[in-house]
Write a structure and sequence with these properties.
The complex is a heterodimer.
Chain A: H1 2-22, H2 24-41, H3 43-47, H4 78-114, H5 116-131, H6 134-145, H7 149-176, H8 179-186, H9 191-227, H10 242-251, H11 262-290, H12 292-295
Helix pairs in contact in A: 2-4, 2-11, 4-5, 4-7, 4-9, 4-11, 5-7, 6-7, 7-9, 8-9, 9-10, 9-11, 10-11
Chain B: H1 3-31, H2 49-61, H3 68-80, H4 96-131, H5 136-150, H6 153-167, H7 186-223, H8 227-234, H9 239-251, H10 253-277, H11 282-291, H12 295-323, H13 325-329
The chains are: A mainly alpha, B mainly alpha.
Chain lengths: 298, 330
Amino acid sequence: MFRERLRENRKRLQKLLRELVRQRIALVGLVIITASIAISVLAPVLVGPYPSSVQGAATLQPPSSEHLLGTDYQGRDILTLLAYGGQISLLIGFSASAVAMILGTAVGLIGGFYGRIPDQILARATDFFLVIPWLPFAIVLSMVLGPSLRTTIIAIAIVSWPTTARVIRSQVLSLKERLFIERARAVGAKMPYIIRRHVLPNVMPLVWAEAVLTISNAVFTEAFLSFFGLGPPPGAGTVVSWGTMVNQAYTALALISNPPMWWYFLPPGLAITFVVLGFAMLGYGLEEIFNPALRRRR
Amino acid sequence: MNLRRFLLRKAVYVVLTVFLISALNFLIFQILPGDPTRVLLPRGGSSNQAGESLRQELLHQWGLDQPIPTRFVIYLSNLLRGNFGTSITYRPGIAAMDVIAPRLATTLALVGLATAVTMWLGIILGRVSGWRRGRRTDVLITMTTLFGYSMPSFWVSLVLIFAFAVELNLFPVHGEISPDYGTLDPLSKVLDRLYHLVLPVLTFAITNIAWFSMTLRNSLTDVLPEDYMLTAAAKGLTEDQQLRWHALPNARLPVVTAAAIYFGWVLSGAIVVEVVFDFQGLGKLTWDATRALDFPLMSAIFFIATLGVVVANALADVLYMFLDPRVREA
């Protein structure tokens, strides 16, 4: 029984992988993501220990054979900072997305399945959170809760769950009309059981697609908050995120100094772009595979 | 549904949302830690007797000694009368609205122009890419716009400043007007403003074109396999005629919805662009108010921004109805 299930799962995974390969966009995304995770996790091996600011180190040095991308305002090697920077961006991306998924899926499931008044309330709440401008809202939240890693994650989760709630709700609405749900109801299954046994397994693939897209969004939002100095505070010894690096380059006048220090502010921005793009590409690909409404398009 | 009932329902919805926004606004700025009187009192002022009585006086005057439900009612009645509170930092005591109003024009010019340019380019590119779906042109357009969409706008503005203002010296590094703006004649004034708007607008365009081009591309892809498109081709219409007369009228509706959602992001974009380019607009004001902990001002901006988005969304819904006969006659 267990074996059979395992084989079935493997078959499903193989089918998914085949689809991904067929859809080049998702595959490219997957490659970018794997590379960025590998680099940030293996940073200690690849570029050595995390640099601490050294008294008297040469600051703001242009690229040389010793420092391939030069040094920052504290004399730290920028290439090393860049490799480590992914740790914080990805950590925030994954955690914020997880929180947003739990919230969004719960709201979508309950609203879509129970309908009527609970749905009205939840759908209005979703609409409401969708129209609030995300950056000012995240800034205000960060100010209220005080900048910290946890605050950043919460703020990003609060601005990103509504999209998921909407997608899940519409999926549940169409599932609800299907015969097997009606059958389960007819034999007297309780609502929570139907949700757990029949609805949730059917919306899970879509939740994964949404989760990947939300990671992309979360990394993006984290960069903005960090650029404004509202991300996790860069204390002594803690890893600096890419958004903070751009902020520090900006503050160090990398842009208008003579000659401009392009090697300081260009790399972290490109890193953000590639990671955001990677997750977005994989997310779009998964969405097209899993969302029946989009399948027709291929 | 007839038009009257539709509009009435929309209106009720807008009023309800505005009420929710004011409630959230009140809630956020209520649970904020810190005593609002401290910003006004002299440093260490509340430790001596005179300072303490001044503090009590302020608390009473601002109604902060009332229970929270009473304060919410006071807050709502003030909002209804257009009183958004007084700024703490910009000449203390000045009405928040008077700080915001002159800035509104700068921001509206910026985001209005930026939205127009972005939508225009997005529609052009989306049309090409939807029509040639899967071919090389489509892949090129999709990948380029998606790459731009993934770039954080603060970084894009930095790169643009670096390339076009510092290296090539073509455009100003920052500001919305030249130092000698006051001496210019009216036409030069307009041109001067436009000249300063080029890089900020470009930032919006680069980072947001994909939103419109992808929307149009996907909705075109839904329309193209329809039978009436085959009929149009069989009639012997040119590609341009098929696109213009049969595909686009059916594919443009999602773009209206996309535009409505886009309004919600515009202020976020304006904050970034105005801070980096040092524009004295609403976005910069939001940022300055946040840094200065000017809560009444922040609250007022937040309220006005959300109000703008809600109204824009409602207008888009009404526009949608006029454009879509199915909704209009249903």
